[in-house]
Specification:
Order of helices and strands: HEHEHEEHHHHEHHEHHH
Distance between the termini: 52 Å
Structural class: alpha+beta
CATH architecture of the largest domain: Up-down Bundle
Number of domains: 2
Length: about 400
């Protein structure tokens, strides 16, 4: 499918204008990153604790935030998971600077104090299988005989059955939710009378220490750098060195501008953000290779034609494909950004911005730099011949 036929746009005529514009934008992005707001690191990179909690009904997120901020540990971020009627949230709290520690327990306790009535009963939605086993063994509703270890062995399968039901439902609202669980009649009666269900359930708790976060940042940097190096080597052997340099400069341009926008908008840098940047690197170089491949074909068919004209012809012939492919991809990513929910919002935003920069750089950055290096090489060869 093509909708642009026989275009004769002279892209290379104004290449230096666009290179100057891109240079200014890159310098601005570097200034924003290193001298401006900088990056806002998420728990993955800064270190911290992440809870996945499910509420009975829509909670007052202001109360959630105030309860956790009262601990004065670190910055709190709250993200909804799934649809609004699910009432499931990711709650992240960064560790204090250069502080190791798992703050899941104090975070859960703070939410428990805020949303649940004070109770010393067994908390089925907040406790793990081991704690529930211990409490059942202590209460011993089955009046089983044996040592403490034997009682724990007796009640452990029932505690695991309670946890399995909680995992299946997300949150236990009352004893009726345990009808399918393998519980003895006495334990079922004990749970019905003495257990406390509460307003929310703890589904998962994860912790990343600052040292681990620092290591992840370094590895993320290496991932992007080695991907660029791999692209350079591939295009060097596939085409010529000057095309590899042009593609890498274009990719570096795309990544830096995208990082600048992420810094300026205060988006969190997390593992999915790095995944989006790596996706952008691959997507951008794919479009660039299409143009370079057409340049190589045209050079073989029209030997002696000036390279600047060959590049203009190649870009014009692939222009329809570039617009259709990039445009449709951008619309798909836009749908993810608008309707995909908070979890992948930053991932989609990174690609939204990056696709625009990547499409532009394939035309106005990669090819002009490849042309500049080719012209420089030709001048060196001519000067060498004159010396002989």
């Amino acid at each position: 499918m093509r909708f642009l036929h026989d275009t004769k746009i002279r892209f290379m005529k104004y290449r230096w204008h666009w290179i100057i514009v891109s240079t200014v934008l890159n310098l601005t992005a570097i200034g924003v990153i290193f001298f401006g707001p900088g990056f806002k690191y998420g728990v993955d990179f800064a270190g911290g604790t992440q809870l996945t909690v499910k509420f009975r009904s829509q909670p007052d997120l202001g109360r959630v935030r105030r309860a956790l901020e009262s601990l004065k540990i670190g910055t709190v971020t709250i993200q909804r998971v799934g649809n609004e009627d699910v009432h499931e949230f990711l709650i992240r709290m960064q560790n204090p600077k250069r502080t190791e520690g798992d703050f899941a327990t104090v975070m859960v306790d703070a939410l428990d104090r805020e949303f649940n009535a004070k109770s010393s009963a067994m908390k089925l939605n907040l406790q793990g299988a081991d704690t529930i086993t211990d409490e059942l063994a202590q209460a011993n509703p089955d009046h089983a005989n044996g040592t403490q270890a034997e009682l724990q062995e007796h009640y452990k399968p029932m505690a695991e059955a309670i946890l399995a039901a909680r995992k299946k439902l997300g949150i236990l609202t009352n004893a009726a939710d345990l009808q399918g669980a393998a519980l003895s009649p006495a334990v079922r009666a004990y749970v019905d009378q003495d257990a406390h269900f509460g307003e929310f359930a703890l589904e998962a708790a994860d912790n990343v220490g600052p040292l681990v976060g620092k290591d992840l940042r370094q590895k993320a940097l290496y991932a992007v750098a080695f991907s660029l190096l791999g692209m350079l080597i591939y295009i060097w052997f596939r085409f010529k060195l000057q095309y590899g340099l042009g593609a890498i400069i274009a990719n570096f341009h795309d990544v830096m501008l995208t990082l600048g926008v992420l810094s300026l908008t205060g988006r969190e840098m997390e593992i999915p953000t790095i995944a989006a940047l790596l996706t952008l690197v691959g997507y951008s170089v794919n479009d660039t290779v299409i143009i370079f491949d057409r340049i190589r074909e045209t050079q073989k068919l029209e030997r002696g034609k000036p390279l600047v004209e060959v590049m203009d012809d190649a870009i014009n012939r692939t222009l329809s494909r570039t617009i259709i492919t990039s445009g449709l991809t951008w619309l798909v990513v836009l749908s993810l950004f608008l309707f995909g929910g908070h979890v992948i919002n930053t991932f989609a935003f990174t690609l939204l911005v990056g696709i625009i920069f990547g499409t532009y750089s394939s035309i106005y950055i990669a090819s002009p730099f490849a042309l500049a290096v080719s012209n420089w090489q030709e001048k060196r060869k001519a000067a060498h011949r004159r010396r002989k």
